[in-house]
Amino acid sequence: MSPFLDGWIAHRCGLDAATPQSVLRVQLARFNAVLRHVRRNGVFYRKRLAGLFERRGDLIETGMWPREPFDVAEIPLTEAADIKRDGGRFLCVPLDEIARIVTLSTSGTTGIPKRLAFAADDLESTLDFFAHGISVLVRAGDSVLILLPGAERPDGVADLLRRALPRIGARGIPGDPAADPKLFRKEVERYRPQCLVAAPSQLRRLLEGLESPPNLRAVLSSAEPLPDDVRGALAARWGCAVFDHYGLTETGYGGGVECPSHDGYHLREADLYWEVIDPFSGEPVPDGTPGEVVFTTLTRRAMPLIRYRTGDLASMLPGPCACGSPLRRLSRIRGRLARGKDGTLTVIAPSKGWMGP
C-alpha cells in the first residue's frame, strides 16, 4: 500500500516529497498570496479584513505573513450568511472570466441562496483532484457509473467527474440520479461498470432487495455523510470495496478521500488549508479533538474563501496513516451545527459521543 495522493500533492506544491512541514510552508505562502489577491481585487474581504491589513499589511505585502498556523487564527472567520448577503462582493476577477456560477438553495430562515463563482482555472484544479483522488479505486480501462446529479450541466459535479476519468484511462458514464433499482439494473447490464459513484441515499435505495451487480469492484460514496450501516451493507451484500469522499461545492466539490486503510480523509492540501476550531469560541483545537471544520481556498482566483465555516464536525487525525502517508487526515464527519435565528449554535450529531476521539 502506498500514499496515493502524496505524490500529486508534492507535484502541485513544487516539492520533491510531501511532508507535513514542507506542505505547511507552501500552504502559508499560498495563504499570503490569497490575502494579497483579495486585498487588491475583492470588495468583501478588503472591508472584512481591514483591521488585519492595517496591523499586518506591510508583512503581507512582502510575503512574510502568515508564518505559522497560529497567525492564521488571527484572521476573521467567513460564514455562509456572508455569501448569501454579499456574494457578488466576494468576486476577485472580472465577470467575463467567470466560467461557472453555482446557485445553492437553502432551507434557512431567509431562504436566500448561496451563489459561488468559478474561473476556468478553478475548475481545472477540481478536474485534476478528481482524476488523482478517484485513482484510489479506479483503474485504467474501468467503466465508472456516476449517479450523482449534474451530468446534464456543463461543469456540474457529475460532468466534471466524467471529464476527469479519461485522464487516468477510465470511462465515466452518467447514470440515473433517481437511483431507481430497475433502471439501475438495466444500466449495470448495459455498461457492466467496475466502479460506482453515488450518494448514500442513492446507495441505500439500490441496496433494498438488489443483488450484487456483476463486475462491480468498488463504490465511491459522496455528497452526504456515509452511514456505517450503508457501508457495511455494501461490503456484505455486494462484496465490493467502499470508499468515502468529503467535499462541498464551496471547496470546489473535491475535499478529501479515503485510502484503503479507511482511517480518515486524505486532504486536498495543495489547494485547501484545513483547520478544526471550537465551534463556540472559534479557537483552534489540537489534533484529535473534535470541532468545526474550516477551510481556506489557496489556489482559487474567482471567488476565494478565507477561513470558511462548513458547519461540519470532525477532528484532524494526528500521526501517519497506515498507508504510509505522513500528512494530516480528517476524521469522518461526526455531526452538524445548526444556527438559530438569534445566532446561537446547536450541535446535531448523528452518532453518540461526537466530542469523543
From TrEMBL:
Alphabetical list of SUPFAM superfamilies matching this protein: Acetyl-CoA synthetase-like
One Pfam family matching this protein: AMP-binding
Classification via Gene3D superfamilies: N-terminal domain of ligase-like
The AMP-dependent synthetase/ligase domain, residue ranges: 106-295
Protein name: AMP-binding protein
Species of provenance: Candidatus Bilophila faecipullorum
InterPro entries assigned to the protein according to its UniProt record, in alphabetical order: AMP-dep_synth/lig_dom, ANL_N_sf
